[in-house]
Amino acid sequence: MSDGPSTTTQLPAQSAPVDPAATEAAGGRAATPGSAGRLSWWHGDGGEGARRNLALIGVLVVLFVIGAATRSDLYSNPDWVWANMLIILKLASVAGVVTVGMTFVIIGGGIDLSVGAIVALAGVWSTTVATQSFGAGGMIFTAIVVGLAVGLVNGTLIAYGRLVPFIATLAMLVAARGLAAEISDKQTQISQNTTINGIASTNLLGIPLLVYILAAVVAAGWVLLNRTTFGRRTVAVGGNPEAARLAGIDVKRHTLMLYGLSGLCCGIAAIMLTAQATSAQAGMANLYELDAIAAVIIGGTLLSGGRGTIIGSLLGVIIFATITNLFAINGLSVEAQNMVKGGIIVAAVLIQQVQFGTLSQFFRRNRLTTG
Predict the structure, then answer these.
(1) What stretches pass through the bilayer (predicted)?
(2) Which of 57, 99, 189, 296 could form a disulfide with 127 if both were Cys (CB 3.0 to 4.6 A apart)?
């Protein structure tokens, strides 16, 4: 046994393990912690919305290329291209405002089939002779209040009456259309207010006022969904209502507020559509509910709730407006346009089913609700 001083052998410091996937993505070099974090975000759930939005922008580019190939005589003129882009945005403005409200409802785990009827009822009520006598302010106030009130009725029936959203809003669709027809006596009501009518014809810096209204609603919706407690609660309620309730969220009150928000958006859209047509009737905004739901699904919002983006829904609306415009400039029938839209909706739902199991979650929730 040696009495000499003991020595301690020290192993050389080892470097942190390198993720092969990150190394390959970085072109064969070991990725730094910052770049690895960005890569993991992009490929993970956090970047899913960005990837889908990028794909939707790619779809718009493809539609532009198709338009340029089929009508090169028009697309060769830059002035016409710019004017046509503004037409598409103007075409998407009313449906886009409705879609913002629909996005919140679907993220919250619901559905609203009555949005088109609410737009019609708000438009008809705001263009009665009595309402128009109060001027533009009275017409705008009436449309917004009617839309909000009908939305709150939907929310009350669903949240507190425990009706299935599909049934409650389907009944409201019929009732609101009937009430609009009763108020208008099945006649078209002309808007005599130049201020309201001017909303559709006014341009600011060369861009229609309707586009600015759409941008303002989208911006407000984005902030509400992504930067407020209301938005986080919406995602929580749509993802798992029972867990949200146990976490202290008043699920019933929040559901009521979601449908009220949808009705509020319908009231705004009613003024915009009335301005475009300079009139209102019980049949206006026909099938807007299908357009809004389709745009929300195309934009990546899960049909079962709990996930979705405002920007994705906006891109979905613009895609459908672009398809409509593309068919119009090529002289194709509305029937063919509807078939293409239907195919796009089916494809989007199938993609969701493969990626997230949306259909199984949707049916499971329905069993829990009706059980």
Answers:
(1) 50-69, 81-107, 113-131, 138-160, 166-183, 204-225, 256-275, 310-332
(2) 189
Segment 70-121, tens digit of pLDDT: 998 898 899 999 999 999 999 999 999 999 999 999 999 999 999 999 999 9
Structure tokens at 148: 């909000």
CA 124, 130, 131, 132 dihedral sign is positive
Q: How far is CA 17 from CA 21, 30, 36, 100, 104, in A?
A: 12, 10, 12, 45, 43
Instruction: Report the C-alpha dihedral over residues 28, 30, 34, 37, rounded to 10 degrees.
Output: 70
Structure tokens of 227? 């930067």
**Angstrom distance (rounded) from CA 110 to CA 96:** 19
**What is the rounded distance in angstroms from the CA atom of residue 29 to the CA atom of residue 11?**
26
Phi, psi of 204 (to 5 degrees): -120, 120
- What is the rounded CA–CA span in Å between residue 167 and residue 190? 33
Using alpha carbons only, give the angle 340, 117, 295 rounded to the nearest 5 degrees.
Answer: 35
CA 122, CA 151: separation in Å to the nearest integer? 11
Give strand ranges (E) for 70-200. 189-190
C-alpha span between 149 and 151 (Å, rounded)? 5
Give the whole-angstrom CA distance, residue 41 versus residue 66: 33
Give the chain's domains with CATH numbers: 47-357 (1.10.3470)
